[in-house]
Amino acid sequence: MPSAPLVGLPSDRKQIGLHPFQAVGEKYIRAIVDGAQCVPVLIPSLTPSLDLRDLLGRLDGLLLTGAYSNIEPHHYGLEPSYAGNLHDPARDGTTLPLVPLAIEMKVPVLAVCRGLQEVNVALGGTLYQKVHEAGDYDDHREDLNATLDDQYGPAHPVRLAPEGLLAKIAGAPEADVNSLHGQGVRDLGIGLRVEATAPDGLIEAVSLASNDSFLLAVQWHPEWKVRENPFYLGIFQAFAAACRTRAEQRA
Ligand SMILES: N[C@@H](CCC(=O)NCCCC(=O)O)C(=O)O
């Protein structure tokens, strides 16, 4: 019997006082423990990065978390970043190469919010830097003055692709999700298929078209109170099942 799967979580690089720190939100760590029954392993985002191939060879899954920072737009070749945009180049330099490597090595990937954007950009896709200014889209940002429970509460439904992974998890064609993002998918990355869309048409979730390995990326936050929401829990349990399969193969 293999021991519990090891899931890597790349960290954010944050300045606290005079020193840089490596940080991962505790709700993501808790969701790996409580929702997936796996062991979280924090991956420092260093420059230059660690040997990511070696690292992935020791892991059974990868969780790309959300973050307030945004991917530097030169990674998707569009207009320069807007003034005041918060970036984390060390995290970009870790997560963007991790995505294709994880696919190549068949390491299961679950990606949340910034994580979905990283999956899309790593596979050649592009982003809207401000969804709410992009034309026909709603404002998908949270109210930063609201309580956390309100910020992470249901914000809008998503329509789930028939025959998709999320429709199977939900057992329904739609589900309610939270919404806390200013950026979003513009052009879809290569090899991705749409799993869910918002009522305004924005892409809200993607998976690997080839089904070669488990990769599910969602724009909402299923880690929030994961055990209280059957749909969110189902997402972590589907990821955990893929991680267990890899752990058995690695044993
Ligand atoms: N910065 C991006 C991604 C949004 C995101 O990941 N928010 C997470 C907030 C904190 C957390 O819950 O981890 C965007 O604005 O689109």
Q: How does this model look, in words?
A:
The structure is a single chain. By secondary structure, this protein is α/β, with parallel strands linked by helices. The protein has 7 helices and 13 strands. It has helices at residues 26-35, 52-56, 89-104, 114-122, 148-151, 165-170, 230-250, and strands spanning 6-10, 12-16, 19-23, 39-43, 61-64, 109-112, 127-128, 156-160, 174-177, 184-185, 192-197, 203-208, 215-218. The chain has a 9-stranded mixed β-sheet, sandwiched between helices. Strand 12 and strand 13 form a beta hairpin. Helix 3 (89-104) packs across helix 4 (114-122). It starts with 5 loop residues before the first strand and ends with a helix. The structure holds the ligand N[C@@H](CCC(=O)NCCCC(=O)O)C(=O)O. The site of the ligand N[C@@H](CCC(=O)NCCCC(=O)O)C(=O)O has 13 residues, from loops. The ligand N[C@@H](CCC(=O)NCCCC(=O)O)C(=O)O is lined by residues 25, 65-68, 70, 113-114, 180-183, 221.
